[in-house]
Amino acid sequence: MSRNMSAIVVNLGLAGIVALASAGVALAGTTAQISATVTAQNVSITLTSDGSVAYGTQSLSNTPDTTTGTYGVDDTQTVQNNGNVAEDFTIQGANSTNWSLAATAGANQYGYKFCTTTCDTTPSWTSMNNATGVSLSTSVGAGSSKDVDFQLLMPTSDSSGYAEQSFNVTITAAAS
Ligand SMILES: [Ca+2]
Question: Is residue 75 within 8 Å of 165, Cβ to Cβ?
Answer without folding.
Answer: no
